[in-house]
Amino acid sequence: MKLLIVSYSYTPALTPRAFRWSAVAGELVRRGHEVHVLCAAAGAAGRDADGVVVHRVRDWLLDGAARVSAGTPAAAATPTGHGWRALLRRGVRALWRALYWPDFACGWVIPATRAARALHGEHRYDWIVSVSHPFTGHLVGLLAAPHAHGARWFVDIGDPFHLMEEPAPNNRRLYRWLNRAVEARVVTVADALSVTTESTQHLYATHFGLPAARLVVVPPLLSLPSAPLPSLRAADAPLSLVFVGTLYRKLRSPRFLLACLAALQGALSETHPHRRVELHFYGALNDCADEFAACEPGVRDALVTHGMVSRAKVLQAMVDADVLVNIGNDSEAQLASKVIEYMAVGKPILNLVSLARDTSVAALAAYPAALTLARDVG
Hints:
Low-confidence stretches: 64-71
Number of domains: 2
Helix content: 25-40%
Order of helices and strands: EHEEEHHEHEHEHEEHEHHEHEHEHE
Strand order of the largest sheet: 3-4-2-1-5-6-7-8
Number of strands: 14
CATH architecture of the largest domain: 3-Layer(aba) Sandwich
CATH superfamily of the largest domain: Glycogen Phosphorylase B
Shape: globular
Radius of gyration: 21 Å
Mean pLDDT: 85
CATH topology of the largest domain: Rossmann fold
CATH class of the largest domain: Alpha Beta
């Protein structure tokens, strides 16, 4: 069987979609299928080590794929400074965000659609698989599928699009009707659909009038490299808390976690006055950088932000951590893929939630070393 996977991000990008589909693509090749991937231009093209044929097409407008590569600073996504150039950059950025559609990767739609049609004409795929986030991947699938005669279309929904309130994929005031119309078209035309949680399955079945059985639940996959040995640590090393993921003020805010850190420091100052704590963040801070700056000096001194680093470094950090920290989404439709990886590492997990039906609560229910704290209680 021949497959074309259309995904804006693919390895070496450090995104859940890239991790998920590079693992799936490699497994499909090992099972004897011919797999091609069409993705944005961040990395090498051609046949990779797993035997997957990778085709890379550059985003005409923004090289968004480069923002999720190793070495990107934690707060690189937010222009800083107070001069006129910084103000101009922020103004242009705000205008761009108010106008683009369907999302930040919109400049990839036309070149990727052309490439998908040409690739199918050459290889005659049996299946075209489109992947989100971003939704641009599905838009490419929608535009390419009618020209891909003989191929069926599989849609893998990582995050909702029309139903996503925060972070909004685009200007909802301007595009709400278009978001719904196009996503409705995608889920209607597709030959097969998958989502990552049962709550997302219910959400789509309710809002788009789909039979729940048509939406297959394929949970986040475990695709970690081999675990390294723990690093040697001094006897007086700080207690190490590690958070891995992307922060958003309105979806996954660090505010409650920072308050918990302050409370922990206060408790330790009474019982173990010489014990220090460090809280490490791996991933982009986005619009949450000012919440770190607003912390008390003692809390701020305990924070270490690493930005985007390689999977190997993240895995080493998780193995070396005393406690792994998950911040639940302010959405019942999403499960952070890192929860699955946290459990695989086998370390204690501090799970901070703001919704009673947070999907992480059920995922961690049988895990023997998890503590869930609700924001309204804490």
